[in-house]
């Protein structure tokens, strides 16, 4: 498939004519969204204090992990003592803050981890009165985190509530929590009138350029400034930006679980070098009823240059996987017959895109057409496509206090920020044990992963074969 016709030269051709300006690069890590939970199973885990958190940071593509230790239960109900507990990162802000959700049974709690202050805070629950008005947190909608420009050092947690019927009883609004006021409140929201779509099929949210961007990877992006002062005469406006013309899928697509899974595997929108980038793996079918073999799979990228202009997207490049398989793909221990899943974009270089193949995370340099790095990324198979506000793994640009440290260090923060080296070693042994369980799971499933590209539950399984 050839590149689309555009009025202006692609970014790749423009950059070939001029040397890019050098900019200071920020350290970043590939932060896994699934939190490692330590429990009370042995004395080693008892050494970590209540609600303490640590970061195990590594040089990408080695994954980095956030580890949470809670000696006591999240919920106050002592009768629920056998329900499984899980935790997931919803957002990781480049300033210092990580928003995570801990789920135990049917109870969900939000925590803010401030890596600068090295403190963990639980967010209060939405009041009973607000919940009765329908202003409670929805577990099925994405939750974003953005720095508050009006209160330095503070943040807002935001969830988009859209009206599917246009009823005045349930108007479009934002449910917000401010760390400055320590309370939940709602903001009115107006919708852009032209080319607007209902934002009820968004599958993720990210903060960029002072705005929150809700991603509907089947057809477009919704964005607004959620920190508009409440006393402003006009409420915040939600804008809609379609994807490049030949990337927009049919309206019904997001409601098909299998097709949605395929979209999440093949598309992403991520910030890199100060701009949002849209990546798609092409040459594959989204029709689950038609078994079509992949035809020369390629990686395409567009850059969002002007979200409110007539031509918002600029085509960047197209690279065929076949161009790199012959030279470096097999050398990296990857399988040329498998189409990988898109994972993330290097925040410092938009030509480098990272992909999953099985349990491995590797970077592809589209400019030099080669594999730049490949490492094992131990994430349980059932968590790789776990639905959340944040992908299972994403780039996190480290805040200054963390970035000054040498990568592959353990940073602990919480009630006690200073630990002996012996305790750090014991904690890392607990982390290694958790990761070993994921490694064993991949080993058990290795013999059956090639049997089918779609499993019986209707979810996409392994990558399609070429």
What is the compact description of this entry?
Residues 8-24 have a biased composition (Basic and acidic residues). This protein has 466 residues and is mostly beta strands.
What does this entry look like structurally?
With 466 residues, the chain is mainly beta. It has a domain at 143-255. The chain has 7 helices and 26 strands. Strands 9-10-11-12-16-15-14-13 form an 8-stranded mixed β-sheet, with no helix packed on it. Strands 1, 2, 3, 4, 25 and 26 form a 6-stranded mixed β-sheet that branches. It has a 4-stranded antiparallel β-sheet with strand order 5-6-7-8, with no helix packed on it. The longest helix has 25 residues, at 421-445. The protein is globular, with a radius of gyration of 22 Å. The model is unreliable at 1-9, 42-51, 71-81, 405-409, 412-419 and 449-460 (pLDDT under 50).
Q: How many β-strand runs? A: 26
Biggest sheet: strands side by side, in what order?
A: 9-10-11-12-16-15-14-13
Category from helices, strands and their pairing? mainly beta
Mean pLDDT figure? 76
Work out the helicity level: 10-25%
Overall body shape: globular
Question: How would you describe the oligomerization state of the chains in this entry?
Answer: single chain
Biggest sheet overview: 8 strands, mixed
Poorly predicted regions: 1-9, 42-51, 71-81, 405-409, 412-419, 449-460
Distance between the termini: 16 Å
Separate helix tally: 7
| C-alpha-based Rg, rounded | 22 Å
Share in β-strands? 25-35%
């Amino acid at each position: 498939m050839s590149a689309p016709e555009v009025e202006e030269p692609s970014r790749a051709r423009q950059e070939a004519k001029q040397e890019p300006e050098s900019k200071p690069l920020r350290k970043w890590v590939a932060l896994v969204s699934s939190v490692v939970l330590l429990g009370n199973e042995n004395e080693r885990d008892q050494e970590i204090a209540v609600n303490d958190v640590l970061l195990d940071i590594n040089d990408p593509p080695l994954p980095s992990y956030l580890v949470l230790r809670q000696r006591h239960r999240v919920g106050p109900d002592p009768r629920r003592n056998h329900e499984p507990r899980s935790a997931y990162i919803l957002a990781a802000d480049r300033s210092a803050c990580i928003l995570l959700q801990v789920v135990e049974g049917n109870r969900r709690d939000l925590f803010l981890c401030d890596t600068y202050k090295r403190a963990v805070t639980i967010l209060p629950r939405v009041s009973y009165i607000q919940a009765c008005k329908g202003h409670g947190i929805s577990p099925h909608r994405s939750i974003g985190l953005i720095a508050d420009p009006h209160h330095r050092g503070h943040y807002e947690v935001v969830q988009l509530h859209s009206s599917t019927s246009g009823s005045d009883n349930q108007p479009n609004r934002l449910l917000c929590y401010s760390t400055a006021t320590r309370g939940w409140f709602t903001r009115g929201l107006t919708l852009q009138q032209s080319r607007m779509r209902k934002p009820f099929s968004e599958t993720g949210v990210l903060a960029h350029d002072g705005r929150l961007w809700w991603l509907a990877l089947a057809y477009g992006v919704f964005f607004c400034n959620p920190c508009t002062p409440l006393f402003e005469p006009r409420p915040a406006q939600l804008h809609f930006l379609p994807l490049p013309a030949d990337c927009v899928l049919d309206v019904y697509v997001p409601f098909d679980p299998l097709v949605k899974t395929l979209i999440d595997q093949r598309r992403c929108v991520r910030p890199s070098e100060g701009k949002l980038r849209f990546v798609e793996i092409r040459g594959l079918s989204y029709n689950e009823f038609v078994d079509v073999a992949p035809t020369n799979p390629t990686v395409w990228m567009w850059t969002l240059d002007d979200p409110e202009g007539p031509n918002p997207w600029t085509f960047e490049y197209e690279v065929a996987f076949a161009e790199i398989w012959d030279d470096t793909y097999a050398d990296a221990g990857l399988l040329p017959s498998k189409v990988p899943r898109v994972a993330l974009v290097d925040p410092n270089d938009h030509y480098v895109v990272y992909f999953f193949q099985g349990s491995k995370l590797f970077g592809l340099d589209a400019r030099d057409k080669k594999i730049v790095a490949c490492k094992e990324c131990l994430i349980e198979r059932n968590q790789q496509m776990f639905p959340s506000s944040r992908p299972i793994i994403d780039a996190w640009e480290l805040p200054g206090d963390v970035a000054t440290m040498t990568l592959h260090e353990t940073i602990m923060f919480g009630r006690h920020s200073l630990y002996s080296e012996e305790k750090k070693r014991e904690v890392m042994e607990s982390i290694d044990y958790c990761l070993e369980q994921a490694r064993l799971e991949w080993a058990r499933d290795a013999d059956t992963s090639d049997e089918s590209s779609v499993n019986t539950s209707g979810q996409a399984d392994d990558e399609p074969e070429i």
